[in-house]
């Protein structure tokens, strides 16, 4: 397929990265790529969707992967996956003979193997320069569900209308559901048998990089998990930052042990971020050297420093993120040229085992199966958010009272801006239109 045609299909069918920030997938297509990587790392503890989707739809996903590689004229195609996802690996191997270009790249069982900078290093040995994107080293990375959406768009002409979400933690029956975009988190919890404790804390996404959520929040194209936690538990507490207190605690007890930098995944790849230097400079208000402050712009927010490394229970990630937002608000950008150190020789010994991380987070008890359930269900109302991706949000193209059919275009980003189209996830009637969402009664 011609690259321009693929570009158009991805944009028109609303395809964005299915985890993280929702970067429009068409905008990653670039002929400078010689390698396409399918990211099946799924390194956040408890989430179980990608490996199961990969297992069930290996052929479809590999078909789309091959199509993308052909359009880009990329010579290498790597499925990055952990050996422990044995059933998914088996499904890939069973189809490999049909796809000559595709090979498997095994990832270590560590967090954050799915950070694309880490995934690229582990599978190709290339280091994405600090502040840069994968194409700088000739790579394009898509995750499993995104690639399945690409398949559905190319081969079945279906836009993105549904999402796979793992629902686990304090629920009766952990499960990985396929649901229409716009259902509430509470409806997902009900489908998982209901909550097991009163007043659980809702988390959207994984325990390391997820966000505090509410039962009335709704599924978007980037929702990968809904996890219910006990109030007061380690992860639940980490979701509500108390910046002043955290700063005061850092001043009192940071012992400059450097452990946070020693385990920082970006630091280990030679990137300039050093959480220990930031903490040291920040707590002692050393402003004669601004480097540790400016280097916060190279933090990816993975959370290893505060959720795993710091033996004093301090919060480098949170403080860095507050500082980083301040820099951005004031128009401070990354330096054009930065000093990049070689990958640390100690790196292999400093990787964070996912199993140990899960235990450290106090989540091992929830780390069981969350089987895939693709039953088609009807929900009374669907709230379709207009800003589900990075770039310019969609502008509504329907009005209250309009009848829409499943898959119909209901909103779109401006044609000349970074953005995608948005489609009705079910047949229904539009009951409300705001600048944030479109409500459908089905
Ligand atoms: S969150 Fe911490 S460990 Fe992760 S990149 Fe930022 S400084 Fe490094
Ligand atoms: S690991 Fe904790 S105590 Fe050690 S330098 Fe980092 S923030 Fe300070």
How would you briefly describe this protein structure?
The chain is of the alpha/beta class.
Question: Which terms would index this structure?
Answer:
442 residues; alpha/beta; Rossmann fold; Ubiquitin-like (UB roll); 4 domains; six-stranded mixed beta sheet; 16 helices; 19 strands; 31% helix; binds iron/sulfur cluster
User: How does the major sheet shape up?
Assistant: 6 strands, mixed
CATH class of the largest domain: Alpha Beta
Give unreliable regions as ranges.
Answer: none
Number of DSSP-assigned strands: 19
What does this structure look like?
The structure is a single chain. With 442 residues, the protein is an alpha/beta fold. The chain folds into four domains: 3-156, 3-Layer(aba) Sandwich (Rossmann fold), CATH 3.40.50; 161-233 and 364-377, Ubiquitin-like (UB roll) (Roll); 243-360, no CATH class; 378-442, RNA polymerase II/Efflux pump adaptor protein, barrel-sandwich hybrid domain (OB fold (Dihydrolipoamide Acetyltransferase, E2P), Beta Barrel). 31% of the residues lie in helices and 18% in strands. It has 16 helices and 19 strands. It has helices spanning 3-12, 50-56, 58-72, 86-95, 116-124, 144-156, 185-191, 234-238, 243-253, 259-263, 265-268, 275-283, 291-294, 304-309, 316-329, 354-360; strands at 35-40, 76-81, 102-106, 110-111, 139-143, 162-169, 175-180, 201-204, 211-213, 225-229, 352-353, 372-373, 381-385, 395-396, 403-404, 409-412, 421-423, 428-433, 437-441. It has a six-stranded mixed sheet, covered by helices on one side. β6 (162-169) and β7 (175-180) form a beta hairpin. The radius of gyration is 22 Å and the shape is globular. The two termini are 36 Å apart. The mean pLDDT is 95. The structure holds iron/sulfur cluster (2 copies). One iron/sulfur cluster is lined by residues 264, 266-267, 273, 275, 299-305, 316-317, 320.
